[in-house]
Design goal:
The protein is mainly alpha-helical and 435 residues long. The protein has one domain (2-203, 228-434): Growth Hormone, Chain: A. It is built from 17 helices and no strands. The longest helix is centred in the C-terminal third of the chain and has 34 residues, at 274-307. The radius of gyration is 21 Å and the shape is globular.
Length: 435
């Protein structure tokens, strides 16, 4: 059957490598902050919240609706069907935004903007709910490194897209042709690379060498979690602890990321003209941040494996960005500090998805991973992604600046840090009890 055809065990590193390529081609969410000021100018708007509100619809598609749908399909039929669904959604969403930019009335266009953003998010959700669980199923013995490589792709595209899009806008103006380009690239990547070659391993498969051959072996055993059913996972206290951790991190992360260009404009407006900021500072910042995010995704995956698992790194990828967000605001009147602190901040942000995706199979096993991971992420990360950007923009509109929005982001992130440390303490106690 065609659903079962694809790359097997002997070439299982194909999955994170190709996931990197597909993610780089399809994920353009970090560019959205670049488009907000252009849409603001296109429709002659003074406020930002109604534009940034699109990220709520994108977040609903990418995390709340998309992954739970594909999680069940993946566990039963494999990744091919979800990849086709993802390609269709990406093309639909980008085509709608192309249509939106031919309109002049924001009162009408805004609904096309929201609908297009939703379908783009849905395409991302269908893909993310599929590739992460598939990679985790194929590489349980190197989950941190493999997922770090795979997830790195979702931010790597910005390295190329940011200067390319900035150049297109400078040469030809802000138009829907940019989004048609995104649609074609996404379709080629998913239908040409994902659908023909991806599949899932048998439920009872494990890689060779997953366990030491005997009790006397000096080889350090690889952690193997019990395969929880979805019902068992939901009743486990660790499920709800991770829920609080994930939603806290996602809310603060996306509040900053999706408002980044507007925060930079606020900080540099007394030093550089708005046009200069949009033409040079923001594209360089996004490229710089994308490089940092790529290094962070891969780097934190390796760090997680070296430190002994995701519980030991979860609190780190929460706490360090909280400190750096404060430093960013204190130094955002300087272009140099924006680039330096922004690089470190996005390196920290890069660890979040890697550690999140690694910790779920680490705790709940692999057999029902698609459903457990997608549901947990949907109602934690999904809600954070959906509402974090809008709340930040809304606070900015009513207070006149991003100070209180960033205070909220830092405080919520520290809440996640505390719960991550609680989880680490639980694990340490369990390990002591087993000795």
């Amino acid at each position: 059957m065609w659903l079962e055809k694809g790359i097997g065990e002997e070439k299982r590193w194909f999955y994170p490598i190709s996931a990197f390529i597909i993610g780089a081609a399809t994920f353009v969410s970090q560019l959205w902050t670049m488009f907000y000021p252009h849409i603001q100018a296109h429709f002659g708007l003074e406020t930002t919240a109604s534009i940034v509100f699109a990220s709520t619809f994108s977040g609903m598609g990418s995390m709340i609706i998309g992954p739970p749908i594909t999680g069940g399909i993946l566990d039963k039929y494999g990744p091919k069907i979800p990849f086709i669904m993802s390609a269709v959604s990406f093309v639909t969403g980008h085509s709608l935004i192309f249509k939106m930019l031919t309109m002049n009335d924001w009162a009408t266009a805004r609904y096309i903007w929201y609908l297009g953003s939703f379908f783009i998010g849905l395409g991302a959700g269908f893909y993310s709910g599929t590739y992460t669980a598939t990679v985790a199923k194929w590489l349980p013995d190197r989950a941190g490194t493999a997922l770090g490589l795979a997830v790195a792709g979702t931010g790597a595209g910005t390295i190329v897209y940011s200067p390319l899009v900035a150049s297109l806008i400078k040469s030809h103006g802000f138009s829907g042709n940019i989004f048609l380009m995104f649609a074609m690239i996404a379709a080629v990547a998913l239908l040409g690379l994902g659908v023909p070659f991806w599949r899932t391993p048998p439920h009872d498969w494990s890689p060779a060498g997953m366990q030491p051959k005997s009790k006397a072996s000096a080889v350090r055993p690889v952690h193997i979690a019990k395969d929880y059913t979805f019902q068992e996972a939901v009743k486990d206290r660790r499920f709800w602890l991770l829920y609080i951790c994930f939603i806290s991190a996602a809310f603060s992360n996306m509040l900053f990321v999706q408002n980044a260009s507007l925060i930079i404009i606020e900080g540099l407006s007394g030093v550089i003209s708005r046009d200069a900021i949009m033409a040079s500072v923001v594209p360089i910042f996004l490229t710089n941040s994308a490089v940092a995010g790529l290094l962070g995704r891969f780097g934190w995956g390796v760090i997680s494996d070296k430190l002994g698992g995701p519980w030991r790194t979860l609190w780190m990828v929460y706490f360090l960005p909280a400190v750096l967000m404060v430093a960013f605001y204190l130094g955002y009147h300087s272009t140099l500090l924006i680039f330096i602190i922004g690089f470190l901040l996005y390196f920290g942000f890069g660890g979040e998805p890697v550690v999140h995706y690694a910790i779920v199979p680490h705790v709940f096993g692999r057999r029902h991973l698609g459903k457990i991971m997608s549901t947990l992420n949907a109602f934690s990360v999904g809600l954070g992604i959906a509402f974090g950007p809008y709340v930040g923009a809304y606070i900015k509109d009513i207070t006149g600046g991003y100070y209180w929005a960033l205070v909220l982001a830092v405080l919520i992130r520290l809440v996640g840090t505390v719960f991550a440390l609680v989880g680490l303490n639980w694990v340490k106690r369990e390990n002591v009890a087993e000795i």
